[in-house]
Amino acid sequence: MAHIRGYIATSLDGFIATDDDRLDWLFAYNDLDLGEHDYRTFLNGIRTVVMGRGTYDFLARDASPWAYGDKRVFVVTSRPIPDPKGPLQTRGNIDELIAELRSLDDGDVWMLGGGRLQMSFIERGALNDLQIFVMPELIGGGRPLFPATGAAVKPRLIAADALHRGCVRLHYTFE
After folding, report:
1. Is residue 161 packed enough to be buried (19+ CB in 10 Å), middle (13-18) or exposed (0-12)?
2. How does DSSP classify residue 13?
């Protein structure tokens, strides 16, 4: 059974992007040495990537090549994607998608991107663990790490690490 995992960066004031979806504040840390917690190391252990439509649209607008060529990719959306940037499948029903993801046995699943979709999975008890990288930046507003949904969840902290350039890694489990 696949583990569904989160791996996300946030500003110190709890935002993952500015109101206009800019990530300049985060890209200033592209040279960050995360050691064994590096994004590329994490991605090597992932077989399936799940993202919401907002994250997909953000990636589709970017000039960079599709970064998930050898991964199975699901975009959660109710709207068709007429000319996808890379190979992907769409799903509209989160509960059915969770059941489908849980039945996979060829590697872990990464919940990529925004807090809304991650929160939907957390509310349903479907996220196994979450790594949050807190960057030493106050960006003053924007897209929240977790939008307020009224859900009360008590994840268990399994690690907290001070990393390069003031970044802090928090690792939680929901099991």
Report:
1. middle
2. T
In this structure, the dihedral spanned by the alpha carbons of residues 24, 117, 111 and 121, taken in order and rounded to 10 degrees, is 150
State the Cα–Cα distance between residues 115 and 174, nearest whole angstrom.
Answer: 16
3-class DSSP state of 52: strand
Give the DSSP letter string of 63-90: SSPPS-TTSEEEEE-SS--SS-SSS-EE
The CATH classification number of 4-153 equals 3.40.430.10
pLDDT digits 0-9 by tens, 134-166: 999 999 999 999 998 888 999 999 999 999 999
Q: Which residues have a Cβ under 8 Å from the Cβ of 116 and sit 6 or more positions away?
A: 52, 54, 147
Nearest-CA neighbor of 11 among 122, 102, 106, 141? 141
Domain limits, the chain: 4-153
Q: What are phi and psi of 64, to 5 degrees?
A: -65, 150
Question: Which amino acid makes up residue 92?
Answer: G
Residue with tokens 């001070």: 162
Query: d(Cα 125, Cα 17) in Å, to the nearest integer?
Result: 25
Q: Cα dist. 9→13, 78, 92 in Å?
A: 12, 26, 26
The structure's pTM equals 0.94
Q: Which of these, 9, 1, 77, 75, lies nearest to 38 by C-alpha position?
A: 9
